């Protein structure tokens, strides 16, 4: 009867296979552990792992007349809003601006954050009249406008709600470093605004 003989080469090969198996299992475990840790970190901090889609591509004009695209906010966390060009004559819209300005003051010194307000008006000078009474750090808070219909489409997609051209919405939306919308917050509810500021710090 023939007996199989285990050679040194066989032992070396089996040892290598075992090491490879341990390596790949370890790598898979590390990936699962890291993903689970990040997910529970978000949940524990009250943020959650739910997302609401990506911000569509855009090219608009800011209050200084500069062309701005979504790429200008890459690797930054930003808060978006949709305001009316008649904001001075609308108390709810004015309250929205004032609360947004308050958030701006809290995070403006962090280079990893930005504020973005979409304005449904093609005249850049209209933007300046709206922000003339606000303490705005222009490189941090961008007031963007362009074709009213395109602005409205962008705002509707970001806020996931049909909005009138030239109108506004009292919700703010939070966008992460990858251009993904992470949450919505009522600007007229102080507790939600506090949560927004907390979530910004979580993402940064």
TrEMBL record:
Q: Which controlled-vocabulary keywords does the entry list? A: Membrane, Transmembrane, Transmembrane helix
Residue ranges annotated as transmembrane are: 21-40
* Protein name per Swiss-Prot or TrEMBL: Thioredoxin domain-containing protein
Q: Which SUPFAM superfamilies match?
A: Thioredoxin-like
């Amino acid at each position: 009867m023939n007996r199989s003989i285990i050679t040194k080469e066989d032992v070396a090969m089996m040892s290598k296979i075992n090491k490879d198996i341990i390596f790949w299992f370890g790598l898979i475990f590390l990936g699962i552990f890291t993903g689970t840790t990040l997910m529970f970190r978000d949940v524990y901090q009250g943020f959650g792992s739910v997302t609401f889609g990506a911000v569509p591509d855009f090219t608009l004009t800011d209050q200084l007349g500069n062309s701005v695209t979504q790429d200008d906010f890459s690797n930054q966390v930003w808060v978006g809003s949709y305001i009316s060009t008649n904001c001075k004559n609308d108390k709810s819209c004015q309250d929205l601006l004032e609360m947004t300005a308050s958030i701006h003051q809290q995070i403006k010194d962090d280079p990893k954050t930005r504020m973005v307000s979409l304005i449904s008006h093609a005249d850049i000078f209209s933007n300046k009249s709206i922000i003339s009474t606000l303490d705005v750090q222009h490189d941090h808070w961008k007031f963007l406008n362009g074709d009213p219909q395109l602005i409205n489409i962008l705002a509707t997609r970001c806020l996931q709600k049909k909005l009138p051209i030239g109108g506004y919405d009292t919700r703010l939306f939070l966008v992460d470093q990858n251009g993904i919308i992470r949450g919505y917050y009522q600007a007229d509810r102080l507790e939600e605004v506090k949560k927004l500021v907390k979530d910004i710090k979580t993402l940064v």
